[in-house]
Amino acid sequence: MANSVMATTQALLCNNCYPNSFSPATKPYNSKLSVSRHYRLYKNDENCKAWSITKPLFSDQKIGSKLMNLVVCYAARRKPTISNATISSDEGNDYKLGKVLQIILWVLEGVYILWLFLLPYAPGDPVWAISKETVNSLIGLSLNFFFILPLMNSVGIHLIDAPVLHPVSEGLFNFVIGWTFMFAPLLFTDYKRNRYQGSLDVLWGLQMFLTNTFLIPYMAIRLNEADAESTPRKHSQLGTVMTNGAPIVGLIGGFACLVSALWAFYGRMDGNFGSMADRWEFLFSYLGSERLAYAFIWDICLYIIFQPWLIGENLQNIQESKVDVVNFLRFIPVVGLVAYLLCLKLDEEL
């Protein structure tokens, strides 16, 4: 047949654009040819364009009797807003930063052990030359854990008489212990905890009753790359109790820290431990002469760093309406950790 068929464009459905409607500009069947010359396309996406083909495509009537459609959709070619190169660069930077932080933490662990335990240069005696007086002081502080014995004695309960120690040393000891106590739910809800293959129960127990030596390696190990084949471990009984009871842990630990600060300057007022000025003077002399007190200051400094770090990476565990508050308070020592524990989403498995 001499007459050629004029094909027009019809946009096919794709992932990024679709036609709203088509309206014929002329009657669709006005001759023996079963085609219309033009269709008007209304589209939603500016990235999809229909081109009209005015050049005859086919001269064969059998083929020409069918409407041929040509679609040119630019949505598939659309330039991505974030290139793969940018994503790869960001991942590479994060990986390098993680490795640098790991090196810093492992070096810090070595310095902590050498300086506080082994070398004789820090204030007080190293572990291998610890004095009997230091051992007795440590035992006495442990017996006055969270001021339980002194409070029992004050109400007439004398199952064991509480050792009478300087309130500043008691306050410093219990302040660090109270803060450490609250780290348990934070560790058990850390989303990177599975990268640490050891027992979190043992880790926290050593941290609680010995020193902060054991938390530094955990902070380094959790920076390892995630193992794709690893499966989330279930909480231990201790982990379940600490996680479900996080608000109670937060209230007890926060109250212990508050009482410790007040006890240091107002406790045992009848014990001839001097005024507030005298207690400040004792604090500085205590830090400069006792290795245990000196180590507590190291622990406090590390907690000031680790608390906002861990909370900031676990804000997804917080109730949505309180995320901004916790994110702001996490930089305040003790207070930020109390806020995290009070605002955990306990109705979900963490």
UniProtKB/TrEMBL annotation:
Give a yes or no for keyword Hydrolase in this entry: no
UniProt keyword annotation of Transmembrane helix present = yes
Bilayer-crossing residues are 100-118, 138-160, 172-191, 203-221, 241-266, 292-311, 323-342
Q: Which UniProt keywords apply?
A: Membrane, Transmembrane, Transmembrane helix
Name the UniProt record assigns to this protein: Transmembrane protein
User: Species name for this entry?
Assistant: Manihot esculenta
Q: What is the lineage of its organism?
A: Eukaryota, Viridiplantae, Streptophyta, Embryophyta, Tracheophyta
